[in-house]
Automatic annotation (TrEMBL):
One GO CC annotation: cytosol
Family: Belongs to the glycosyltransferase 20 family.
Annotated protein name in UniProt: Trehalose-6-phosphate synthase
Family matches, as PANTHER family: BCDNA.GH08860, TREHALOSE-6-PHOSPHATE SYNTHASE
GO biological process, one term: trehalose biosynthetic process
Gene Ontology MF annotations: alpha,alpha-trehalose-phosphate synthase (UDP-forming) activity; trehalose-phosphatase activity
InterPro entries: Glyco_trans_20 (IPR001830)
Organism of derivation: Streptomyces carminius
Length: 489
């Protein structure tokens, strides 16, 4: 008998990934994040539908028929879709990460980019096919009237496609990114018969509820629907709003995902984190022992929207403007490579290393490296840096939320001053106790770093306490359960 599920999650990246050894053995690696804790809190029958992302995943999907071993997934039922590699690459690299990600983060150098030609047309057809594969699998797995929570810009067409296949379902869509304002969003091809921009909006409007991380992104989505589709935006007395298009209403929700305080505090005090703190202290150097060097910490995926290079240039400017910091501060920058199939990400990764190297070359001495850069992803080392940080630098050009800004205050040992971009979603909740910056302004960011470094220890501790409280206001589990409840109500 086929089990049909009451709760379904769909996302490109699933809760587990596999690597394939030389002898053909598969090793599973479990991921974390809000969806993992949320889904594990669901009582009853739930399943997670995701794509096979690499050779290991594909092999695992083939050997198991796509239904993964629960011991690899922490007990969660997972269905992994083995999508044809060319189709997957067009959809993931071509459309999702080179176009939709760039639109929502407003990353294009518009005099030359983007160029929508024959290549994009093919990629877009692949994106449709990849979304259809998810819609088919969800339609198969869902019990009558089940709740389906579709995630992110990879899967914008799924709600509409799934509604056609299964009108009985409750369908939600959640965007983890910012949403572009209409004047930027409309650079997507949009002709009278539909076009890409309109297809994306209509796809999401196939959901009963479309949700976002902040009100800012939710409003931008509604404005795009109004301007591009001529949809009506209605607001109820309690401030809840909806987008009405072709006779159907899609409710709009906001759920500001928070940091997982209990998990982080426990995890950050394990032995492996203590070991990494000792190693980092060694690298930072603490001369003289009674007045250790200050640390400015950043932790990011190396990704263009994170603005790592401008962060390094601001640090360089700090050293220029304030020679008193020479030998007294270290910028601990963890920049973990991501999406390396794309040249633009590879080039950015190289640029980060180059600029960090130039700063060390120009200012470093025999016993002081102004920048300590690590590029190998290591969660325990990230937590070690969080605990040590005097200052956290979170300066994205645009960011759906930015959980690093929320995690650092939670695990900080001695209090940490937060320098935060006004373009991060987290700004909506943390602005009051952060030092906020325009992410493009290198001089202002350098000034903010100086202010953060010279902040009185008492004030810093007080602010960190308030930041931690704001950052944990909505736990990942509650974030997920709230969405589920709102979808069912
Ligand atoms: C962002 C997106 C997620 C994505 C993550 C990592 O947070 O909103 O959907 O999974 O980046 O990116 P990747 O391309 O490695 O999955």
């Amino acid at each position: 008998m086929v089990t049909r599920h009451q709760v379904l999650v769909a996302s490109n990246r699933g809760p587990v990934s596999y690597s394939l050894g030389e002898g053909g053995e598969l090793t599973a690696k479990r991921g974390g994040g809000g969806l993992v804790s949320g889904l594990s809190a669901v009582k009853g029958d739930a399943v997670w539908v995701c794509a096979a992302l690499g050779d290991g995943d594909r092999e695992a999907a083939r050997r198991t028929g796509g239904v993964l071993d629960a011991s690899d997934t922490g007990g969660q039922q997972v269905r992994m879709l083995d999508i044809e590699p060319e189709v997957f690459s067009d959809a993931y690299n071509g459309v999702a990460n080179s176009v939709l990600w760039f639109v929502h983060h407003m990353l294009y150098q518009t005099p030359t980019e983007p160029v929508f030609g024959a290549e994009f047309e093919r990629q877009w057809r692949s994106y449709e096919a990849y979304n259809a594969a998810f819609a088919d699998a969800l339609a198969e797995e869902a019990a009558e009237g089940a709740a389906v929570l579709v995630q992110d810009y990879h899967l914008t067409l799924v709600p509409g496609m799934l509604r056609e296949r299964r009108p009985d379902l409750r369908i939600g869509h959640f965007s983890h990114t910012p949403w572009a304002p209409p004047d930027y969003f409309r650079l997507l091809p949009d002709d009278p018969d539909g076009g890409v921009g309109a297809e994306v909006l209509r796809g999401i409007l196939g959901a009963d509820r479309a949700a976002f991380l902040t009100r800012r992104w939710a409003h931008a989505f509604a404005e795009c629907c109004a301007k591009l589709l001529g949809a009506e935006v209605t607001t109820a007395e309690d401030g809840q709003f909806a987008v009405v298009h072709e006779g159907r209403a899609t409710r709009i929700g906001v759920h500001g995902l928070g940091a997982d305080g209990d998990f982080l505090r426990e995890r950050a005090h394990r032995e492996d984190v203590a070991e990494r703190m000792a190693a980092l202290r060694e690298q930072i150097g603490s001369e003289p022992a009674d007045n250790p060097r200050r640390t400015i910490v950043r932790v990011d995926r190396t990704e263009l929207s994170k603005n790592i290079v401008r962060g390094l240039l601001a640090y360089r400017r700090l050293l220029d403007d304030h020679p008193e910091w020479h030998g007294r501060v270290v910028h601990v920058a963890f920049a973990y490579p991501s999406r390396q199939d794309l040249a633009v990400y590879r080039e950015y990764t190289e640029e980060v290393s180059r600029v960090a190297g130039e700063i060390n070359e120009a200012y470093g001495t025999s016993d002081w490296s102004p920048v300590v850069l690590h590029v190998k992803d290591d969660f325990a080392r990230s937590l070690a840096a969080y605990r040590l940080a005097d200052v956290a630098l979170v300066n994205p050009i645009r960011d759906g939320m930015n959980l690093v800004a929320k995690e650092i205050p939670v695990v900080s040992d001695g209090g940490c001053a937060l320098v935060l971009s006004r373009e991060a979603g987290a700004f909506a909740e943390l602005a009051e106790d952060a030092i906020t910056v325009n992410p493009y302004d290198i001089g202002a960011t350098a000034d903010a770093l100086h202010r953060a470094l010279t902040m009185d220890a008492g004030e810093r501790a007080e602010r960190t306490k308030r930041l931690a409280a704001a950052a944990t206001a909505l736990s990942p589990t509650q974030w997920f359960l709230d969405q589920l409840e709102a979808l069912r109500s």
